[in-house]
Design a protein that fits this description.
Helix content: 10-25%
Radius of gyration: 17 Å
Number of strands: 7
Structural class: alpha/beta
Strand content: 25-35%
Distance between the termini: 40 Å
Protein backbone atom coordinates (compact mmCIF):
# COMPACT_ATOMS: atom_id res chain seq x y z
CA UNK A 1 0.00 0.00 0.00
CA UNK A 2 1.25 3.47 -0.87
CA UNK A 3 0.33 6.47 1.28
CA UNK A 4 0.75 10.08 0.22
CA UNK A 5 1.49 12.60 2.96
CA UNK A 6 4.13 14.95 4.31
CA UNK A 7 7.40 13.44 5.64
CA UNK A 8 6.60 14.09 9.34
CA UNK A 9 3.72 11.58 9.06
CA UNK A 10 5.67 8.76 7.38
CA UNK A 11 6.44 6.69 10.50
CA UNK A 12 2.81 6.79 11.67
CA UNK A 13 1.56 5.75 8.22
CA UNK A 14 4.03 2.86 8.10
CA UNK A 15 2.69 1.70 11.48
CA UNK A 16 -0.77 1.72 9.86
CA UNK A 17 0.52 -0.64 7.16
CA UNK A 18 1.85 1.55 4.35
CA UNK A 19 4.75 -0.06 2.52
CA UNK A 20 5.69 3.24 0.94
CA UNK A 21 5.04 6.85 1.99
CA UNK A 22 5.55 9.50 -0.63
CA UNK A 23 4.24 12.86 -1.74
CA UNK A 24 3.14 15.43 -2.59
CA UNK A 25 0.13 14.92 -4.86
CA UNK A 26 1.15 17.82 -7.07
CA UNK A 27 4.11 15.75 -8.29
CA UNK A 28 1.76 13.58 -10.40
CA UNK A 29 0.81 9.88 -10.44
CA UNK A 30 4.12 8.55 -11.80
CA UNK A 31 6.05 10.32 -9.01
CA UNK A 32 4.17 8.35 -6.35
CA UNK A 33 4.14 4.95 -8.07
CA UNK A 34 0.76 5.33 -9.78
CA UNK A 35 -1.63 5.20 -11.37
CA UNK A 36 -3.44 2.90 -8.94
CA UNK A 37 -6.46 0.60 -9.26
CA UNK A 38 -7.94 2.02 -6.04
CA UNK A 39 -7.48 5.44 -4.44
CA UNK A 40 -9.00 5.99 -1.00
CA UNK A 41 -9.18 9.46 0.55
CA UNK A 42 -9.64 9.42 4.33
CA UNK A 43 -8.89 13.06 5.03
CA UNK A 44 -10.29 16.43 4.15
CA UNK A 45 -8.22 18.07 1.45
CA UNK A 46 -8.69 21.23 -0.56
CA UNK A 47 -11.09 21.10 -3.53
CA UNK A 48 -8.06 21.41 -5.83
CA UNK A 49 -6.34 18.39 -4.25
CA UNK A 50 -9.58 16.42 -4.30
CA UNK A 51 -9.98 17.10 -8.03
CA UNK A 52 -6.46 15.72 -8.62
CA UNK A 53 -7.22 12.30 -7.10
CA UNK A 54 -9.03 10.99 -10.17
CA UNK A 55 -5.80 11.48 -12.15
CA UNK A 56 -4.12 8.93 -9.86
CA UNK A 57 -6.57 6.14 -10.75
CA UNK A 58 -5.84 3.71 -13.59
CA UNK A 59 -8.46 3.22 -16.28
CA UNK A 60 -11.24 1.03 -14.91
CA UNK A 61 -10.26 1.78 -11.30
CA UNK A 62 -12.22 3.33 -8.46
CA UNK A 63 -11.91 6.21 -6.02
CA UNK A 64 -13.47 6.15 -2.55
CA UNK A 65 -13.81 9.21 -0.38
CA UNK A 66 -14.66 9.35 3.31
CA UNK A 67 -14.92 13.12 3.53
CA UNK A 68 -16.17 14.26 0.11
CA UNK A 69 -17.15 12.62 -3.17
CA UNK A 70 -14.36 12.34 -5.76
CA UNK A 71 -15.20 13.01 -9.39
CA UNK A 72 -15.58 10.10 -11.79
CA UNK A 73 -13.97 9.87 -15.24
CA UNK A 74 -16.38 8.19 -17.65
CA UNK A 75 -13.85 8.23 -20.49
CA UNK A 76 -11.37 6.21 -18.42
CA UNK A 77 -14.02 4.10 -16.71
CA UNK A 78 -13.05 5.50 -13.30
CA UNK A 79 -15.87 5.04 -10.80
CA UNK A 80 -16.36 6.80 -7.47
CA UNK A 81 -17.83 5.66 -4.16
CA UNK A 82 -18.49 7.42 -0.88
CA UNK A 83 -17.58 5.79 2.42
CA UNK A 84 -20.13 6.43 5.15
CA UNK A 85 -20.60 4.92 8.58
CA UNK A 86 -24.11 4.90 9.97
CA UNK A 87 -24.96 5.17 13.65
CA UNK A 88 -26.12 1.57 13.65
CA UNK A 89 -25.08 -0.84 16.39
CA UNK A 90 -25.25 -3.89 14.13
CA UNK A 91 -23.05 -2.20 11.51
CA UNK A 92 -20.52 -1.10 14.13
CA UNK A 93 -20.29 -4.56 15.74
CA UNK A 94 -17.83 -5.91 13.14
CA UNK A 95 -15.20 -3.17 13.53
CA UNK A 96 -15.67 -3.30 17.32
CA UNK A 97 -14.96 -7.04 17.21
CA UNK A 98 -11.81 -6.29 15.18
CA UNK A 99 -10.62 -3.87 17.86
CA UNK A 100 -11.40 -6.41 20.60
CA UNK A 101 -9.45 -9.11 18.73
CA UNK A 102 -6.46 -6.83 18.20
CA UNK A 103 -6.86 -6.95 14.40
CA UNK A 104 -7.96 -3.33 14.09
CA UNK A 105 -6.33 -0.40 15.83
CA UNK A 106 -7.81 3.04 16.31
CA UNK A 107 -5.32 5.86 16.63
CA UNK A 108 -6.62 8.26 19.27
CA UNK A 109 -5.02 11.67 18.79
CA UNK A 110 -6.79 13.51 21.61
CA UNK A 111 -9.22 13.30 24.50
CA UNK A 112 -11.52 16.30 24.97
CA UNK A 113 -14.31 17.17 27.36
CA UNK A 114 -17.82 16.92 25.90
CA UNK A 115 -18.05 20.72 26.04
CA UNK A 116 -15.08 21.11 23.61
CA UNK A 117 -16.21 19.72 20.22
CA UNK A 118 -15.71 23.06 18.46
CA UNK A 119 -12.04 23.12 19.52
CA UNK A 120 -11.59 19.54 18.28
CA UNK A 121 -13.12 20.44 14.91
CA UNK A 122 -10.87 23.49 14.70
CA UNK A 123 -7.74 21.45 15.43
CA UNK A 124 -8.76 18.78 12.92
CA UNK A 125 -9.48 21.38 10.23
CA UNK A 126 -6.09 23.00 10.84
CA UNK A 127 -4.31 19.64 10.48
CA UNK A 128 -3.30 19.38 14.14
CA UNK A 129 -5.15 16.11 14.87
CA UNK A 130 -3.92 12.99 13.12
CA UNK A 131 -6.32 10.40 14.43
CA UNK A 132 -9.61 10.17 16.27
CA UNK A 133 -10.77 12.41 19.09
CA UNK A 134 -12.55 10.88 22.07
CA UNK A 135 -15.15 13.13 23.70
CA UNK A 136 -15.30 12.47 27.43
CA UNK A 137 -18.65 12.57 29.22
CA UNK A 138 -18.79 14.76 32.33
Amino acid sequence: MTAVDAPPHADRLRRYGADRVTGPLAAGPAAVGGPFQVVVDHVRVSPEELAQLTNYVADGGITAGAACPIREDAAGGVRSASLWVLSDGAQLAKPAAGVDAGKLRVHVAAHRRMAEPAAAHGDAGAGRLHGKTVLLAP
